[in-house]
Design brief:
mainly alpha, two-stranded parallel ribbon
C-alpha cells in the first residue's frame, strides 16, 4: 500500500465525536484535495461520461457483480475465491465446503449492486436508499431479522477498538439525517463517495454490516456520473481495518483517503481495459428492458398460465406492431436463459423460480 502514515491508537474508551460531522461543510470542506479529485476524475473518466446516468455501470454489470461482490465480501473475511464467486453469481452454484453465511454474503452483495444499478436514476443519499441497501446486504445474516434495514436500537462495540458509537436511537437518527443531508449537497462525485465511506461506518447507524453498506453507497455517485466503479479489488483486509480504525479512534481520514485513491486506481486499471472488449448493448433490448423484466416476472409468478400466451399478450398491449415480433423473440430468449444467477434482475425469488420450473416440467409432454 502506498502510504507511510502511522496513526496512534487510543487506550481508553472513546465515544462518538459529533464535531467531526458538524465541522464538515459541503463544497467548502474537502477530504479529497483539488489535485486528488482532478487525478481521480482523470483516472475514472469513461467514454460514457455524457450518457444518461448509469449507462456505464449497466454496460459492465456482469463483471461488476462478480468483482465488487467478491472483493467487498473478502474484506469481511469471506473465503470464496473469485472463481467461486463467478460460479455462484453466473450459474447459481454454491462453492463446496463453504459456510452458508459466506454464500449468503455474496448473494446479498449481488442483490444490493443490482438494486443500485437498476434504480440509479432515482437513487440518492436519503434514508430510503441507504436503508434498503442495508436490507439487501443484511438479508438472512443478522441474529434479529428485524434489524435488516432498520436504524440501530441498541449499543454496539467495535471489535479490536476502544471506539464506542452512539447508543440512543434518536441520537443515531438525528446524526444520520445530518449525514445524509450533507452528502446530498456535495457536488463532486468522488468527494461524495469518500464522505460516505468515512461517515457511515463512523456513525454505525445499523446493528451490523455498516462498512459493507458504506462501500456500496460509495459507488452510487460514481455509477450516476458514469465513472469507473470502486471495486476494492486486491485491497488488503488489514490495511482497510487500520484505515477505518484511524477514523474511529482519531477522526483522521488520511489512511482511508490513501487507501481509497490506491484502490480506485487499481479498479480503473481493470475496467478501462475491459470496456474495450464490451459488445454494444442491443438497442431493442435497451428500449424495452422494463417490459422484458415485467413480463418475465409475470410469467414465472403465474406458473399455471401459458408462457407464450402471456408474452404475446404483453407485447401486443405495449409494443408497436412493427416491433412486436422482435420484442417477443427477445422475451422468449430471456426466458429460455433464465437461471438462479439472474433472478434478482427480474424481482424473483428462488422459490418462485423452482415452482415455475416444476410446473413447466409437469406440463411438458413425455415422449415414448
Amino acid at each position: 500500500m502506498p502510504t507511510s502514515i502511522s496513526l496512534p491508537r487510543r487506550e481508553n474508551p472513546w465515544g462518538y465525536q459529533g464535531d467531526f460531522l458538524d465541522a464538515y461543510h459541503p463544497n467548502q470542506t474537502w477530504y479529497l484535495s483539488e489535485p486528488l479529485r482532478r487525478q481521480l476524475h482523470k483516472m475514472g473518466t469513461t467514454t460514457d461520461i455524457d450518457a444518461p446516468a448509469g449507462t456505464y455501470s449497466r454496460a459492465i454489470l456482469n463483471r461488476l457483480l462478480i468483482d465488487l461482490s467478491w472483493a467487498s465480501s473478502h474484506l469481511e473475511g469471506n473465503t470464496y475465491s473469485r472463481l467461486d464467486t463467478r460460479e455462484l453469481i453466473e450459474h447459481g452454484k454454491a462453492a463446496r465446503g463453504k459456510a452458508a453465511i459466506e454464500t449468503q454474503m455474496i448473494l446479498n452483495h449481488k442483490t444490493a449492486i443490482e438494486l443500485l444499478v437498476e434504480n440509479i436514476a432515482s437513487a440518492e443519499f436519503n434514508r430510503y436508499t441507504l436503508m434498503n441497501l442495508h436490507s439487501a446486504l443484511a438479508e438472512n445474516l443478522l441474529p434479529n431479522p428485524a434489524d435488516e434495514g432498520r436504524i440501530r436500537q441498541h449499543a454496539v462495540d467495535i471489535g479490536r477498538s476502544v471506539y464506542r458509537p452512539l447508543s440512543a436511537p434518536q441520537q443515531i437518527e438525528d446524526a444520520l439525517d445530518t449525514l445524509l443531508d450533507k452528502a446530498r449537497q456535495i457536488r463532486d462525485p468522488f468527494e461524495q463517495s469518500f464522505f460516505m465511506m468515512v461517515h457511515v461506518p463512523y456513525l454505525q447507524p445499523f446493528a451490523d454490516i455498516n462498512k459493507r453498506t458504506s462501500r456500496l453507497a460509495a459507488n452510487l455517485p460514481l455509477f450516476r456520473a458514469n465513472l469507473c466503479p470502486l471495486t476494492f479489488l486486491d485491497v488488503p483486509e488489514q490495511a482497510y481495518s487500520r484505515a477505518t480504525l484511524g477514523v474511529y479512534e482519531m477522526t483522521r481520514v488520511e489512511l482511508l483517503r490513501d487507501l481509497y485513491v490506491w484502490a480506485y486506481e487499481r479498479s480503473t486499471q481493470e475496467y478501462l481495459a475491459i470496456k474495450q472488449d464490451l459488445a454494444e448493448p442491443d438497442p431493442l433490448r435497451l428500449a424495452w428492458r422494463d417490459l422484458i423484466k415485467q413480463t418475465i416476472h409475470g410469467v414465472v409468478t403465474h406458473p399455471t398460465t401459458d408462457p407464450l400466451a402471456r408474452i404475446k399478450e404483453a407485447v401486443e398491449e405495449h409494443v408497436p406492431e412493427a416491433q412486436r415480433s422482435a420484442v417477443q423473440a427477445l422475451i422468449v430468449e430471456e426466458l429460455r436463459r433464465l437461471h438462479e444467477g439472474v433472478l434478482a434482475r427480474y424481482g424473483l425469488r428462488p422459490s418462485a423460480y423452482e415452482a415455475w420450473r416444476t410446473a413447466q416440467i409437469a406440463h411438458t409432454p413425455r415422449t415414448k
